[in-house]
Write a structure and sequence with these properties.
The strands form 2 sheets. Strands 3, 4, 5, 6, 7, 8, 9, 10 and 11 form a 9-stranded mixed sheet that branches. A two-stranded antiparallel sheet has the order 1-2. It is of the alpha/beta class and about 300 residues long. The longest helix has 29 residues. Helices cover about 45% and strands about 25% of the residues.
Length: about 300
């Protein structure tokens, strides 16, 4: 049978730690009566705890009686050992709390293209705020089409997406962030690049060759709603710009993205008061299961940045 004096070694539990804390308080206070106020428990309970600890260790830790309270040599050594152990335990609990509070792991966020040049988009500010609060998270930023982003969020490939809204899915939660203005542009070589006597409207646009996005998007919805003739299909807005710059087509582009081309004389907005539409960009997340904590933190940073 294993001696009692060795029963505690390697088998520390919550009970042992509680008994050690009581004993250390008694030693620090110089007696059980003085420790009663410190521990907020009765002297009889304190006495029982100290006795239980002595039995578990197989040691006499203190002398108490008419002559007063005094630690034995073994008790003095145990106080020193308990101080080191309890300090380490407190440090471990503090570190564990930090782990719970400190975010880590990987976070995949997908963003629709050409948002960095939009002054209304505060995604970069959200990244900075998130980075300050969660420096241990590895952030992966992806760019994709609306359909690819929404599907990726539903499938769990991305924990969060930022897209222009076109048709909401019941599987996703949407939070509006910022707007974008889309204007119609023409380039040199196209008859609409030079100012016209009469500004064209939607009826005239129906007769023009239009370069437009070839997937479900506000751009495609507009083409259907206004019965526009799509003469060239583009996979993204960079492709739309390239087609328009050829002088063979007109096309809608974000005003902030087209601004450098306009300044260089390579594009011109055609009747911007009429031939335009607005997009609302929203953050999208899965409704179920609940997004991970890092995704929730980034979502909150996005909302705060765009308030």
């Amino acid at each position: 049978m294993q001696p009692k004096s060795k029963a505690l070694i390697g088998q520390l539990g919550d009970v042992d730690l509680r008994l050690l804390r009581v004993f250390k308080a008694v030693a620090d206070c110089g007696g059980m009566a003085a420790a009663e106020l410190e521990l907020n428990i009765a002297i009889s309970t304190i006495s029982r705890h100290v006795k239980d600890l002595e039995q578990r260790l197989g040691l006499v830790l203190c002398r108490r009686g008419r002559g007063g309270f005094a630690l034995t040599p073994e008790g003095q050594q145990l106080v020193q050992a308990a101080e080191a152990l309890l300090a380490a335990t407190d440090e471990f609990r503090g570190r564990l709390h930090e782990i719970h509070q400190r975010l880590g792991g990987d976070l995949h966020v997908a963003v629709f293209e050409k948002t960095a040049s939009n002054p209304a988009a505060r995604i970069a500010a959200a990244v900075a705020a998130f980075r300050a609060s969660a420096p241990d998270v590895m952030l992966h930023l992806h760019v994709g089409s609306i359909v690819a982003i929404e599907r990726g969020v539903m499938d769990g490939q991305y924990q969060l997406g930022i897209v222009p809204e076109h048709k909401r899915s019941d599987s996703l939660a949407y939070d509006e962030l910022f707007d974008e203005t889309m204007l119609l542009y023409a380039a040199p070589g196209h008859p609409w690049f030079e100012p016209l006597r009469k500004a064209p409207g939607w009826a005239e646009l129906r007769q023009q060759d239009l370069a437009a996005l070839g997937y479900h998007s506000p751009n495609l919805l507009l083409a259907h709603a206004k019965q526009l003739r799509r003469s060239a299909s583009a996979s993204d807005q960079e492709a739309v710009a390239t087609l328009v710059l050829s002088g063979c087509f007109v096309g809608f582009l974000p005003d902030h993205y087209a601004a450098p081309f306009v300044a260089a004389g390579r594009l011109r907005a055609v009747n911007p008061r009429v031939l335009k539409y607005d997009c609302v960009f929203s953050a999208v997340q899965r409704r179920t299961p609940e997004p991970p904590r890092a995704a929730q933190a980034f979502h909150q940073a996005l909302l705060a940045a765009h308030r």
